[in-house]
Amino acid sequence: MRLILLGPPGAGKGTQAGRLVATHGIVQLSTGDMLRAAVAAETEVGLKVKDVLTRGELVSDDLICSIISDRIDDHDCAKGFILDGFPRTIAQADALDELLEKKDQRLDAVVQLKVDEGILLERIETRARESAQARSDDNADSLKKRLAVYSEQTSPLVDYYSKRNMLMSVDGMKSVDEVAAEIDTILSTV
Ligand code: ADP
Predict the structure, then answer these.
(1) Binding positions for AMP (predicted)?
(2) SS3 assignment for 133-149
C-alpha cells in the first residue's frame, strides 16, 4: 500500500503514520525526520538545509524529490510506504506522479487529516514543551511560518488530489484511537 498523509503541522501525521507502520507492515517516509537526521549527522545536505528548517521555510523541490526518489528504491519500501510531509507543493506532487510512473508504481490513497487550524499552534507548542528532543523549528516564529507555508503552498493539494478522486478525509480533531479507526475503515475500501 502506498499512501500520502496530508495535513498541517500538528495534525497528527507522525502519530498516525507510526501506527500504520505497526499495523500494515509498511515504512514511514517522513521528509522532516530525514532532513533532521541529515542536519544532526552534518551531511552535505544537512548543512545546506539547516537554516531553512530553523526558519520554518521549505527546502527546494528538487532536493526533496531526489531524496524521496532514492529512498523509495530501497528494499524496505517494496511492500509500500506512507509519505509523511511529502508532497508539500503542487510541483512536488507533479514530480511524485512522474517518478512513481517511472518506477511503475501507483498511489493507493491520499488521507487528509482535517483539523481546526486555530488549535494547531497550541498543539505544536505542547509538543515542543513535552518532546524530549527539542526541534530547532519548534519556536513561535517558525511555527507561525510553517502554518502560513502550509496554507499557501500545501493546502492546494487537497483540491489537487480531490479532483483526481484520490482524497479521503478523516476528522483529525478526534482522539488518536478514533482517528486511527477512521483511517483503517477508509483503507479497507482501497
Ligand atoms: P511539521 O511538523 O512542521 O509538519 P516536518 O517534520 O514535516 O514538519 O518538516 C520539518 C521541516 O522540514 C519543514 O518545515 C521544512 O523546512 C522541511 N521539509 C520537510 N518536508 C519537506 C518537503 N516535502 N519540502 C520542502 N521542505 C520540507
Answers:
(1) 31, 36, 57-59, 85-88, 92, 135, 146
(2) CCCCCCCHHHHHHHHHH
